[in-house]
Specification:
111 residues, alpha/beta, 5-stranded mixed sheet, 3 helices, globular
Length: 111
């Protein structure tokens, strides 16, 4: 049992999303495939994913949130956490994440 975290920057170039850090590095779909493999292999691990637009390429992400969300959902949708913290439910319990198998907690921040 454990928690892992990924802090990823994303850009869009030539009709593909990429994980990038100033330069485009890997197609984001490949990273999502690795995340899916990890979630399948380690059923007691929770994965926190912090996703932001790569700052130098933030303009490429304008109005692409829905397209990016659809890509994410197509690759790791069955594991995405659907519980949204609120004043009535301020935290996520690990037991809930494990019981529902919704172990990918996504933070999504775009301009």
């Amino acid at each position: 049992r454990g928690v892992r975290a990924l802090d990823l920057r994303v850009s869009y170039h030539r009709n593909l999303f990429y994980v990038s850090h100033t330069f485009c590095c890997l197609p984001f779909s490949e990273v999502l495939a690795e995340i899916r493999t990890f979630l399948k292999a380690y059923p007691k691990e929770v994965l926190v994913i912090n996703l932001k637009a790569d700052y130098p390429h933030r303009a490429t992400m304008t109005d692409r949130e829905q397209e990016l969300w659809e890509l994410i959902a197509s690759k790791i949708g069955p594991w995405l956490c659907e519980v949204q913290p609120s004043f009535d439910h301020p935290s996520l319990a690990f037991d809930t994440l494990w019981a529902t198998n919704r172990r990918a907690v996504l933070f999504f921040e775009f301009p």
